[in-house]
Write a structure and sequence with these properties.
Chain lengths: 77, 421
């Protein structure tokens, strides 16, 4: 598996500020109440840059890039 | 034969029943039961002594749990063996896991866990001790609702009895949960026992790997642990505790896994039903005819895309309006939101309002139905806990099963009552 990095949101921390939907328009859309629905597909070269910008800009620190391959390694070691 | 029975090895005995006869709870809360609570002496007479599960016996128990395909009776029905193995391997290097017997029965209709705790507390405590020994626990906890006075005193009494005869077993702590729908949710339990509030948590690592205070943690429903106690004795459980709800009364009974749902409901209700809400408030509505031929086992339910959930069968009698019932439940669930996740906090209120508008009927019904479809699609899979998904499942299935009622209500009539809605 090629890394498998994905943008994810901690929905408890999120307060629907909505900056992410502007900075990562290809990955994030907002629902009927203003909370982000994040695309679950693997990040590519173009979307990775958007994802990083959204992660940096979130005032609630609610967005993160999940790396399943690295999590699996952490469990083994 | 049922889907579960074929998992029982031929040379093994079936476990002795937990409840020999049903327990009736009336709407005012009074209970009628022919069953006496088991004190320690009665428990030992019926089931015999609990085997020690340290060392190899623990490994055998994990195999038996796997063979019996034991699943979590709190509602999620995750295969128990997977959790046990995860805790076992995560606990090995760090030493000391945490085992929680979860008796905080959040499902408002369910009384099976309360019944089990009140009448058969030693079976639950046996299962907890077996798990604690097998998984090398540093802490064994029983988690109960603050307001569950009868269950609390039954467990406190049972623990005192065990202490008096100095059973060689891990010490058990009794911990109290706030009386809320979500305080029995497993991430709430882990968060509360780690010193936080009893509210669900967004988790990236399962609690079996990193749970209470960072320790590998097994959270098991109390009925699941009662089954563990039976498996540890070399006997195979072939029953499920269910709560049948009808018109405000609730009946807790032990259904054999080869019994038909139709027969069980007909036996206690004295006839058929219009529809049944399966699992609990966050469950699935099914028409009565759609449940024909279904046995009371999780594999049988799964084969039809359903789940036994927490074992609740909420029976809608002919003459009761399913749409009205769904509105009540949707409103309840919206009010039970932990108010942590936006799609749940805002979304479930929108869902509940839209459903209520549909039940009121009128010209805007089609638009409300479309809105509701948008809301449910947006909410699904996004909460930190199971609450929003359960609410969406209940509402979506209600619109399917009560489709004719929606049409009637729109025209100002009600099929159940035969009068204007």
């Amino acid at each position: 598996m090629s890394g498998g990095r994905r943008l994810r949101v901690d929905i408890v921390a999120c307060q629907g500020v909505g900056i992410c939907a502007h900075l990562a328009a290809d990955l994030v859309r907002v629902d009927s109440w203003g909370y982000p629905i994040v695309d679950d597909s693997e990040l590519g070269p173009g979307t990775e840059r958007q994802a990083r910008a959204a992660v940096r800009a979130c005032p609630r620190r609610a967005l993160f890039i999940a790396d399943p391959a690295r999590e699996r390694r952490a469990l083994v070691t | 034969m049922s889907a579960l029975l074929h998992a029982v090895p031929d040379d093994e005995q079936l476990a002795r029943p937990i409840l020999a006869s049903p327990v009736y709870y009336y709407s005012d809360g009074d209970a009628i039961s022919e069953l006496e609570p088991h004190d320690l002496a009665a428990h030992l007479r019926r089931y015999g002594r609990r085997p020690d599960c340290r060392g190899d016996a623990g490994a055998t128990l994990v195999e038996a749990i796997d063979d019996a395909r034991l699943t979590g009776r709190g509602g999620a029905h995750l295969p128990s063996a997977i959790k046990w193995r995860a805790v076992r391997s995560a606990a090995a290097p760090v030493g000391g896991s945490v085992i929680v017997a979860n008796g905080a029965e959040g499902e408002p209709l369910s009384r099976k866990d309360a019944t089990l705790l009140e009448l058969r507390p030693h079976l639950v405590l046996d299962g907890l001790a077996c798990a604690a020994e097998t998984l090398n626990a540093g802490r064994a906890v029983i988690w109960l609702h603050e307001g569950a006075h009868a269950a609390r005193s039954a467990i406190a009494h049972a623990l005192a009895e065990r202490a008096r005869v100095s059973l060689d077993e891990p010490t058990v702590e009794l911990a109290l949960a706030p009386d809320a729908y979500l305080s029995g949710e497993s991430s709430s339990v882990v968060r509360a026992l780690s010193g936080g509030p009893a509210l669900p948590e967004f988790r990236t690592v399962p609690s079996a790997v990193r749970g209470v205070g960072g320790a590998p943690t097994l959270v098991h429903n109390v009925e699941t642990l009662a089954h563990v106690a039976q498996l540890a004795r070399g006997t195979y459980p072939a029953s499920a505790l269910v709560t049948v709800c009808v018109g405000g009364a609730r009946i807790v009974l032990e259904a054999q896994t080869d019994e038909l749902l139709h027969d069980v409901v007909a036996r206690v209700v004295g006839g058929g039903a219009a529809a049944v809400l399966l699992g609990g408030f966050g469950g699935t509505w099914c028409s009565w005819d759609g449940l024909a031929g279904l046995c009371l086992t999780e594999p049988a339910f799964r084969a039809r895309g359903l789940s036994l959930g927490a074992g609740v069968l909420d029976v809608l009698r002919p003459g009761q309006c399913g749409l009205a019932r769904a509105v009540e439940i949707a409103d309840y669930l919206a009010r039970q939101s932990a108010r942590q996740c936006g799609p749940c906090l805002s979304g479930l209120r929108s869902v509940s309002d839209a459903l209520e508008a549909i039940a009121r009927g009128g010209r805007r019904t089609d638009r409300r139905v479309d809105e509701l479809a948008t809301y449910t699609a947006e909410i699904r899979g996004r909460g930190a806990c199971h609450l929003p998904d359960g609410a969406v499942r209940m509402v979506t299935s209600a619109l399917g099963v009560f489709a004719d009622d929606v049409v009637a209500h729109r025209r100002g009539r009600c099929l159940a009552k035969g009068t204007p809605a």
